[in-house]
Amino acid sequence: MLPSPMAARPSPSCNRTASRAYREALLGLGLLAGMGLAPAHANTACPGNPNALGTSRTLVVDPMEHPRIGTMQYRETLPLKDHEVVLTFDDGPLPPHSTQVLQILASECVKATFFIIGRMAHQFPEGVRRVRAAGHTVATHSENHPLHFERMSPERIRQEIDDGIKHTAEALGDPSTVAPFFRVPGLRRGQVMEDYLVSKGIQSWSADFPADDWLHISSDQVYSRAISRIEAKGRGILLLHDIQARTVAALPRILQTLKARGYRIVHVVPATPDRPKTPTEPREWFIHPPAASVAMAHWPRVPKFLFVSTETLPGPALSDSDLHGGKLLALDRPRTSVEPLQTVAPFHAALNATNNQLALPVPSESIFARPEKAVAMSYGVSPVVRPVSHRLAPVASRPHSAPRAVRAENSPRLIPGSQPITQPNLAPSTILQR
């Protein structure tokens, strides 16, 4: 027997109680969110998936405060907490795989960072606009994805970076929507590239763990490598590629496993005048930061600035010192009285020691001689004097039956390496004969 609809309807008092409890719960969540203490998986607006992984928080970074991040190549990485992961995708857009990646992320309400290739943006501008419309961060990945970035000329490096940004901005129609984040193709970093990025205010991104999805491996291997490497470090930047079918197949399992194991997704955006950076401590930018007791972790950062103009300060003149014309002023007498410098040993004889409690003797000049230096230079040298009158005849005039010269029994035996090459007739040092 089915229950009556009237019996199942709650009373007005129950409705008021439930409504009040619902408002209090929403108020509590709002207060927690304002304090930065909202539940990590509070997904109140993920349509069709109440158990979605979601995006736990947004991290706002100043690109010039930490210009190079990612422990695969650099010392610093993003200031993430334990079990926080940043998702990044390279090489797109390329339909249909990039579109499928966007659909998977949308189903889990997850935000990521996409490093766009300029040539792909020029060919598929609608794909770049889909990334922006979904709320993801649009970064750049060069114009043509050359895999010899570190060996290219400085002019070619600058052109690859600038053209990639240009075509990505043209696809979006607004250059301000392109984040000042750049990842070099193949992670082929170099000093020229990094210096140029700093001059343009662009942050260089590496990663903390890859999934190797650019290799010819299965989607199961992509999944297992991504999860095992995330677990090994506990937090960081995951490197994926949205142009690979194996990545599309592995991505749902990766997100589900991260959700099951308590990981949280962080969305990274650049700071702007209207969006201040997230406050952080210097030690938070390391995967394994130093202890709080280490002074270096709290040492203030050296400001980065350029000298607009330089001024010279006047140097002290010789007249400002106590040395005048090779004479030393006696400090215990009027400045008009001078005494000549003592140049003959012992030097302390010319000093006025009447006001001193202790006068130490000056060592003799012979003490500073270093005979061991000459000994060291001549050590192991066995000079050999060859008589001029017993030179060998030219090879062409030697008889073939002539026997080899035999060393005399009492002649000194030469050790290979003990005979000087440049001075074969060096005489022994007199210091060795003492």
Characterization of this structure:
- The chain is α/β, with parallel strands linked by helices and 434 residues long.
- The protein has a domain at 53-289: TIM Barrel (Alpha-Beta Barrel), CATH 3.20.20.370.
- Helix content is 28%, strand content 12%.
- Strands 1, 3, 4, 5, 8, 9 and 10 form a 7-stranded parallel sheet that branches. A 3-stranded parallel sheet has the order 2-7-6. It has a 3-stranded antiparallel sheet with strand order 11-12-13, with no helix packed on it.
- It starts with a helix and ends in a 56-residue tail after the last helix.
- The relative contact order is 0.11.
- The model is unreliable at 1-43, 378-384, 395-399 and 414-424 (pLDDT under 50).
Major sheet characteristics: 7 strands, parallel
Mean pLDDT across every amino acid position: 76
CATH topology of the domain at 53-289: TIM Barrel
Oligomer: single chain
Q: Helicity, in percent?
A: 25-40%
Question: How many strands in all?
Answer: 13
Based on CA atoms alone, the radius of gyration comes out at 39 Å
- CATH uppermost class of the domain at 53-289: Alpha Beta
Low-confidence stretches: 1-43, 378-384, 395-399, 414-424
Total count of helical runs of at least 4 residues: 10
CATH superfamily membership of the domain at 53-289: Glycoside hydrolase/deacetylase
Q: N-to-C SSE series?
A: HHEEEHEHHEHEHEEHEHEEEEH
Which class of secondary structure composition applies to the elements?
A: alpha/beta
Which of globular, elongated, flat, extended, rod-shaped describes the shape?
elongated
**C-alpha termini separation:** 125 Å
Percentage of residues in strands:
5-15%
CATH architecture of the domain at 53-289: Alpha-Beta Barrel
